[in-house]
Structure prediction request, 730 residues.
Amino acid sequence: MAQRTLTTGGKGAVARVPIDPPARHTGDTADTDVGGSFTLYNGSSGTFLPVKEGNDVMATVKFDQASRIYPGNDTPSVDRLDIDVADGEFLVLVGPSGCGKSTSLRMLAGLEEVNDGKIWIGDRDVTDLSPKDRDVAMVFQNYALYPHMTVADNMGFALKIAGVDKGEIRKRVQEAAGILDLTDYLERKPKALSGGQRQRVAMGRAIVRSPQVFLMDEPLSNLDAKLRVQTRTQIASLQRRLGVTTVYVTHDQIEAMTMGDRIALLKDGILQQCATPREMYDRPNNVFVAGFIGSPAMNLVSVPVTEDGVQFGSHRLHVDRSLLGSSGNEVIVGMRPEDVEVTTNEDGLELIVDVVEELGADAYVYATPANPDIRLEGVGDDALAKPFIARVDGRRVPDKGSKIFVYPNPDHMHVFDKESGARLG
Amino acid sequence: MSTQPALVSENVQAIENLEGGPARGGSFRGRRIGGDSWTTTFLLALCSLTVLIPLYVTIAMAFKTTEQAVEGSAFSLPAPFSIDGFREAWSLTDFPRAFTISLLVTAGTVFGTIILAAFASYAISRNWERRLFRYSFFYLLAAMFIPFPVLALAQIRLTGLAGLDNPAGVTLLHIMFQLSFSVLLFTAFLRSIPMELEESARIDGASTWQTFWHLIFPLLAPMSATVGIFAFLASWNDFMMPSLITSDPSLQTLPVVQSIFQTQFSNNYNVSFASYLMAMAPAIIVYIFTQRWVMAGVTQGAVKG
Ligand SMILES: Nc1ncnc2c1ncn2[C@@H]1O[C@H](COP(=O)(O)OP(=O)(O)OP(=O)(O)O)[C@@H](O)[C@H]1O
Ligand SMILES: [Mg+2]
Prediction:
């Protein structure tokens, strides 16, 4: 991703900007090289935006037991949130609707009071600072462009307020407009722009300021599906080039997986797991994370515990007894569709095939347990009607309505406590 | 004075259009031309005559000679066409002086009302959950129901004591009496401005004061125009307040000065009507220009994608 050129609609910007960022700001590897390498593209050479002049300030972000309880509510909307975001990192806050993503972001922006705990940006305690003193820029879901100002004025507003002189403002707006392919629209009012263009203006408004932290609250949700995928990549690569610490909110786990250096998954205001996309996928902390991350979702089945493992239909799976230690006589076994072994021998959990989704090389088999007592655990609204999903070779697909037997690949199965949902081992 | 109701009702329609949604006023004029709407149109046309006929008489009278005005029918056309009435009215009322005073009072009222009401409304609507602000809103609303004559005596005394028995005092009182309704209009409009805009401005580093001047006030422009028109009409046409408050007759506003025609020169119809016409002209001109501006609808496409 780091090597990808910015493809904001093509011409202009891309040609001028050599995209070969020598230092990719991944998470904790914020090395001293960063400042130096970016000065290559710095300033008025017309090549690149000024990236935080004198980039020696570490723009880390730290939620330290930060809580928010709205007046009139009984439960906190954000409950003792603990996240460390490294300098230059792209952190995605993800979770189902109402889990407190926006609230967390607004707390960081200073738009929402922090009732308990602290929030740090770099080594500044910003808990009680007003938004204007935090040096953050935010992209809102509906962009919140100032309707009475031209695109150029929108982008230059923060600089104007900060008292930057006119020439400098114009220069920086021009540079940002070049990068975002907005040069032709600078004199237009927001209402004369398409949704995608508005989105880019909102991005531009944030970039021009070169703040310590970018905050984005579902900035893509007003775009159509195709544009969303395209813009997703653009934002991610832009962030990587600018190297500005970013906290990005989305409810879409695919966006989270593709964009984030790390993902923080929230549920009911409580942080479930904060890890790299790979780790979230391979080692989910609990049933909720397991079910939320990945598409199609992980299959989760309650199964009985035996002396040396678990009983998966007629298939015995060996699980280290010590792992199962404290849990009762049932655990939840999870396996991703690609980690399911499908056979016609009577070995494993018996399923009836409902639908087969052909994808060419592969096919997804949607099936329901033949024994109605077997429950598939699910996450979210459609938990009840959840089918078992298995990925099979596209050349050997079972027929609709036929019987199959499945069991997990023992190297890639996940075991969760039935009660707490926590990962075992 | 007779033209005011018509102007005001037009105005209310302008507000409706502003508040978004499909233009309600226009739709039955444009699309539905069923039997129903013909009746309505006819009734409205009939009503408009109550304004148009007096207006015609005023204009016709103003251009007549004194003899013709006294003898002829009120509806006859002026023949010969004469501007003596205007000339005489000009000197009798000392028109330039009275006009200037009226203009100053009105300009002060319009400016003061827009600024003060916008300040107050912004403060009230953004602090609604605080009791002080909420109650001050209701306090202002309550004031709307107290007519000036009730307070007149007390206010004459008070302005006299404060040395405000002059056009400045009139301006101040005009602003106060416009405030309630203007705050009502502004607060309704402010509620329709998305909070994100302000939050965005605050994150962009703007203080409350800067947010107001750079963001809120420009967005309020269409409503400011409406409030301004109301303030203009109320102040420009007001007779009662200046006549009671201002003690020095040489500092009277135009409507008060014109009242001499109703007593001294009661048969000089052409002069009095010419004078009325001159006094009315600014109101009509202002109305024609600001009306277009009100319609411009600055906030369209504010936030939605
Ligand atoms: N102003 C408010 N007053 C009271 N409760 C609120 C307020 N704003 C949000 N909440 C509650 O706080 C919780 C978290 O809301 P939040 O907006 O952070 O959710 P979210 O994760 O951003 O959801 P979505 O994906 O739908 O935007 C919700 O349960 C919501 O009902
Ligand atoms: Mg939200």
Remarks:
- The pocket of magnesium ion (ligand 2) is lined by residues A 101-102 (CB under 6 Å).
